[in-house]
Amino acid sequence: MSDVDAEEIFARTFDYIARLINVPISVFGIITNIFHFRILAQKSMRSSPVFTIMMVICMSDIIQLVSQMGNDIKYIVQYNHPNYCPTVDTYYGTFFTIVYYFLNGFSLFVSSWMAVLMAFFRSLSIKFAMSSFSETFSKKSTAHRIAITVTLIAFFYNLLCCLLKYSITPPTIVPTCPGEGPYYIIGGTKTNSHARIIFTFFDGITELFQLIFFTYSTVFLSRFIREASRKKVMKNVEERKTEKTEALILFTLLPFFAFMFPTIMANFSYPILVNFNRVPTVITMSAKLLTMLQTINASSHSIVCILMSSQYRDAAKVKCGPKRMRSTSVSG
């Protein structure tokens, strides 16, 4: 490893330990999300637009967790290699990192916007329950259109983002590394630097819009659940089912925004900090903690569904129960 000061060594050691912790969390998340997807893929679950959207979120979470785990393992292996050089990488290692940036950005875009729009449109459909809008949202075709639109926007936006922000270039200053090279860096041109500032600032703007949708949806759904709970004696089966659906959406939405505030702060502070010769260590550490929160969030959705949805629990029992029980449930 090249000679660095104590602050940088501490930051890299913190990064290494955070990735060591993050890998088993990612493995756990991949396993739970595969289970989650199998439950959501059942015919009884696909009839609900809410669970259809959750299936899209689940697929995005799997992409995020697999790409994050691969990137963490790559870093851990390189960190322990005798020729490790932190500022540069091989050509294929650099290309792998760019692919990770694309997959991670794509999956986070899809999962966050799907969760926000699910809650936002659900809130509007309740508020205007007597209008045609409420009927439109209750259709599976609406959920499919939302999923396709968000996925296409996420794909092309992140593709453009990676093409402009990142390029594989030789370092301007030859590093003093134990290995012979050749070495490369990501985005060494002025165009790449300007694109990173613009896209990072734009990401912060879009996340502010998400925050607005989130705030409205959270307040409205919380008020709806509170008012519905006061009428518990008068509620029929359908009203109770609706209340549980709103609670499920609310608890699915909340973990996304456990890291939304620090993400917004990071995106707006980056254009300022980029003019410094080195990003402060506290910012680097915060970014690693943020990544861990994202991994935990992507691993938690099946647990939320099990706790909040009786329909989901019934489907899980059918899927995971003995074959005789499953065949009896299907025939019944």
The CATH architecture comes to: Up-down Bundle
Main sheet: strand order? 1-2
Helix-strand category: mainly alpha
Low-confidence stretches: 324-332
The CATH topology annotation reads as Rhopdopsin 7-helix transmembrane proteins
Instruction: Kindly estimate the percentage of residues that lie in beta strands according to DSSP.
Output: under 5%
Give structural attributes:
332 residues; mainly alpha; Rhopdopsin 7-helix transmembrane proteins; 13 helices; 1% strand; elongated; disordered C terminus; G protein-coupled peptide receptor activity
Question: Could you describe the 3D structure shown?
Answer:
The chain has 332 residues and is an all-alpha fold. The protein has one domain: Rhodopsin 7-helix transmembrane proteins (Rhopdopsin 7-helix transmembrane proteins, Up-down Bundle). It has 13 helices and 2 strands; from the N terminus they run ααααααββααααααα. A two-stranded antiparallel sheet has the order 1-2. Helix 4 packs antiparallel against helix 8 and helix 7 runs antiparallel to helix 8. The radius of gyration is 23 Å and the shape is elongated. The protein starts with 5 loop residues before the first helix and ends with a helix. The relative contact order is 0.13.
SSE blueprint and pairings:
Layout: H1 6-40, H2 43-46, H3 49-79, H4 91-127, H5 132-137, H6 140-165, E1 168-169, E2 185-186, H7 190-230, H8 237-253, H9 260-273, H10 281-299, H11 301-308, H12 310-320, H13 323-331
Helix pairs in contact: 1-3, 1-10, 3-4, 3-6, 4-6, 4-7, 4-8, 7-8, 7-9, 8-11, 11-12
